[in-house]
TrEMBL record:
<keyword id="KW-0223">Dioxygenase</keyword>
<dbReference type="InterPro" id="IPR050770">
    <property type="entry name" value="Intradiol_RC_Dioxygenase"/>
</dbReference>
<dbReference type="GO" id="GO:0008199">
    <property type="term" value="F:ferric iron binding"/>
</dbReference>
<protein>
    <submittedName>
        <fullName>Protocatechuate 3,4-dioxygenase subunit alpha</fullName>
        <ecNumber>1.13.11.3</ecNumber>
    </submittedName>
</protein>
<dbReference type="Pfam" id="PF00775">
    <property type="entry name" value="Dioxygenase_C"/>
</dbReference>
<dbReference type="InterPro" id="IPR000627">
    <property type="entry name" value="Intradiol_dOase_C"/>
</dbReference>
<dbReference type="InterPro" id="IPR012786">
    <property type="entry name" value="Protocat_dOase_a"/>
</dbReference>
<feature type="domain" description="Intradiol ring-cleavage dioxygenases">
    <location>
        <begin position="47"/>
        <end position="191"/>
    </location>
</feature>
<keyword id="KW-0560">Oxidoreductase</keyword>
<dbReference type="InterPro" id="IPR015889">
    <property type="entry name" value="Intradiol_dOase_core"/>
</dbReference>
<dbReference type="GO" id="GO:0018578">
    <property type="term" value="F:protocatechuate 3,4-dioxygenase activity"/>
</dbReference>
<comment type="similarity">
    <text>Belongs to the intradiol ring-cleavage dioxygenase family.</text>
</comment>
<feature type="compositionally biased region" description="Basic and acidic residues">
    <location>
        <begin position="74"/>
        <end position="85"/>
    </location>
</feature>
<feature type="region of interest" description="Disordered">
    <location>
        <begin position="74"/>
        <end position="93"/>
    </location>
</feature>
Length: 200
């Protein structure tokens, strides 16, 4: 039997069931009120990272969810999978994780602090970055990317993950100052200027 679903149309003839994408259901169960806060408001050194999620046609995606996961400013994780051992963060209220659904204009925001660099298994160092997951309608699986910081040129240039990205595409992984003391990082799911995504 074909893997296409069939529906009985007028006159008893079989027709093709209209295609469907996943969602939009993300606003129902995934977000929570304090989701965008990696750190509490008023935390010293905290910065808002804001941006817009765009689809392949360059239109904002109003029903996406953006998640971030990161080390603390000392480059440590309070998690047993950290090979150096779990370490309590030095910043009160730091949780290392954020989740923000996009608004009607496709915008998201995350309040965080810059993470520290991370050691690589081969002895190198990863530049400060946030790991990012995007969930949205039409995506049957999440997409994963990173946000690097614009004031870390030397560290970004030496980062082994960034170094594996074609030079003309590396800019899609670096946030930009937004003019208000925060950072802007737009996510383009397809098309011109598509953000680099990684297989994990």
């Amino acid at each position: 039997m074909s893997d296409q679903n069939a529906a009985v149309g007028a006159g008893g003839r079989l027709g093709v069931t209209p295609s469907q994408t996943v969602g939009p259901f993300l606003h129902i169960g995934l977000p929570w009120p304090d989701g965008p806060y990696v750190v509490p408001e008023g935390t010293a050194g905290a910065v808002w990272i804001t941006g817009t999620v765009y689809d392949g046609a360059g239109q904002p995606v109003p029903d996406a969810v953006v998640e971030t996961w990161q080390a603390d400013p000392d480059g440590r994780f309070d998690h047993p999978d950290d090979p150096r051992g779990a370490a309590k963060p030095s910043i009160p209220g730091f949780r290392g994780f954020a989740r923000c659904d996009t608004d009607a204009d496709g915008r998201y925001r995350v309040l965080t602090v810059k993470p520290g660099p991370l050691p690589c298994p081969d002895g190198g160092t990863e530049a400060p970055h946030l790991d990012v997951t995007v969930l949205a309608r039409g995506l049957l699986d999440r997409v994963v990317t990173r946000i690097y910081f614009p004031d870390e040129d030397a560290a970004n240039a030496a980062d082994p993950v960034m170094s594996a990205v074609p030079p003309d595409r590396r800019g899609t992984l670096v946030a930009e100052p937004d003019g208000d003391g925060g950072l802007r990082f737009d996510i383009r799911l397809q098309g011109d200027g598509e953000t680099i995504f990684f297989e994990v």
